Amino acid sequence: SGRWAKAEAILRELEEKCGTPTGKLRQVADAMTVEMHAGLASEGGSKLKMLISYVDNLPTGDEEGVFYALDLGGTNFRALRVQLGGEERRVIKREYEERSIPPHLMVGSSHELFDFIAAALAKFVATESEDFVLQPGRQRELGFTFSFPVRQISLASGILIKWTKGFLIEDAIGQDIVKELTKAMERVGLDMHVTALVNDTVGTLARGRYNNPDVIAAVILGTGTNAAYVERANAIPKWQGLLPKSEEMVINMEWGNFQSSHIPLTEYDQSLDAESLNPGEQIFEKIISGMYLGEIVRRVLCRMAEEASFFGDDIPPKLRNPFILRTPDIAAMHHDTSADLKVVGSKLKDILEIPNSSLKMRKMIVEICDVVATRGARLAAAGILGILKKLGRDTVKEGGKQRSVIASDGGLFEHYSEFRNCLMNTLKELLGEEVSESITVELSNDGSGIGAALIAASHSQYL
Ligand code: ADP
Ligand code: MG
Questions:
Q1: What top-level class would CATH report for the domain 1-53+211-444?
Q2: 202-260 pLDDT tens trace
Q3: Catalytic one among 71, 115, 200, 273?
Q4: From the candidates 78, 378, 393, 420, which is the catalytic residue?
Q5: In the chain, how many H helices and how many E strands?
Q6: DSSP string for 237-299
Q7: Is 261 among the residues known to form the active site?
Q8: According to the lineage, what is the superkingdom (predicted)?
Q9: ∠ CA 369-370-372 to the nearest 5 degrees?
Q10: Phi/psi of residue 172, each to 5°?
Q11: CATH number at 54-198
């Protein structure tokens, strides 16, 4: 009937507008490389901030002692401690505590947010057992993972540039985040030294390197998306200070803000962006990351309901709620292998209160999920190719056995296997058989936790 034809037309249009043929991906990768150069050349030289992390020593495995980490920047807030045992014994013990951030604190005042964090940390420190050994006379040290764009002036200080991912606390913008945390720790009577302020991508890179010396970059695919990599210090024209002894510097790209005319955008992306907390910003993130994929699918379904009566004469009221369809939901639908797509059926019922969906309807919904996730995964792969190009690692070196490992973390990469597989296959497609043998993308779990503690250890004030 006309209904189906119209719905079908909307789906085909989506497919066409989201298309990412190889040639287009190469253009995206080239644009990424160009913007990387521009962002390294001068402050504000590109939409890619290419932030200097001040991490010039990645962990080697020799690190010893107890170290703490705090992870703020996603859905949950976590505190962690590790006991490191050096080259032989590695991570001897680790303990975590995780809580969700009360939504009102995500949009409240800086003071309230940091008080909440410091109080949670103090409670956690109070439960430290004798398996964790702090050397006499030493202060506990902390790596603080703060996954928002920060302009660092040293390893342990940084000014918040802006919020992303649903956080918006005006009075924290322009403030030194480490100072805010330190003051809050003093208010709750916690004696702890913030040794390093790190982005989760940088933590993931450190975590990956601790396990594997071939790790050269990290990519986060979770609520948001970002990447970090190891750059030669003398290839950073905007770098003002002395070159570090290691001659290396980890760069936090903030690639979520990447933008290029080669990125395929749709009307759904445009309206999502316009209605977001940060219009015009984080465009790459808004088409790739977990915070948004489900919402894009919801917007497509809304249009199908409105213009093609896809769900019948009435538009299901729940469908009008922004962000009601989460990325884990679309992943579950996408992964549904049952003949009658019963997972899709139950998601529609439970989330959107659409009680009886036909198989035809369910199939189309899976297709929408596929189109949206595929575009995101393929663009993420193009971004990785951009980094490899910048480092000259996208070709086979003569006689070289050079290996490149990209450490990846985040719930999207870890749990959305269609997304992950598509990303890996696309990277292979872009690199070709021979080169892709020397390049792997590896899950690097908990970079934002252990990674930050490892960086605190490799930059300890007692070294
Ligand atoms: P964060 O990015 O918030 O630090 P994670 O790395 O754990 O935290 O990623 C969580 C995000 O990953 C969620 O917001 C969601 O978008 C995505 N995610 C989690 N589980 C799944 C899943 N099963 N399928 C797809 N995406 C998922
Ligand atoms: Mg995280």
A1: alpha beta
A2: 999 999 999 999 999 999 999 999 999 999 999 999 998 889 999 999 999 999 999 99
A3: 200
A4: 78
A5: 17, 13
A6: TT--SPPPTT-EEEEE--GGG---TTS---HHHHHHHHTSSSTTS-HHHHHHSHHHHHHHHHH
A7: no
A8: Eukaryota
A9: 65
A10: -90, -20
A11: 3.30.420.40
